[in-house]
Structure prediction request, 256 residues.
Amino acid sequence: MQDDNPDRTVADRLRRDGYAFVDANELFPLLQIDVAAMAPLRQAWSRLARDAYLRDGGRYRWRRHGCFVQDFSPPALSIAPHRAHWQPTSYNALHGGMERWFEPIEANVVESAAWNRLLTAIGAAFAQVRKVERWYIEAHQFRIDTEGGIGRPTPEGAHRDGVDYVAVILVERRSVRGGETRVFEAGSSVGVRFTMTEPWSMLLMDDTRVVHETTPIQPDGLPGHRDTLVLTYRVGGFQSPQRNSGNAGDADSRSS
Prediction:
């Protein structure tokens, strides 16, 4: 995917389209960090725990989860106490409505300078579109494998996450076919389709404006996998059964 104006900033593209694709060549200047600093993070995806909550009975997804708070005045990123991941059924009809306790992201990852820079730089990019004092960030390490023949990156189908902004970062793609990413305007068939293949390429989305999904993957020769990091940024607090009771809290928490 190439933007029609290479000088248009990530924030400009988010404002115009509701999404922005960022390739690795653009990502590293944005983060002000080189690829060598990011490389050690990739090893952590081989140590994820199996997702025990898949309601389709699959055993193809592995993950870890962590929560963070990014403040802008003064600038700081802090690790929040480990908590369950929760979404209302209005956003996730398949897995919504239940508290899912995933294994935490490893300490050596969240304490690394590269991780800190990754989360804060993306949060700063989103803050250029919507001025905020604080982001509540959930981080999800995913590995979708094809050991059983088919892996489903988004078993819930096309969806929104119930946050303000989402970043999907491809960490590694090995020996798989499929995995087409689709981004559409909410309530419309207007959108784009593409396949992320380059490590550290990234898709940024305004979750209030677009829905997204990724098609199933199949083995290409040997069984393979698709590793991603999904980061969600939300104003007003983390999603929880109490905060989102009746979905009224969801609307309140996303207001300025």
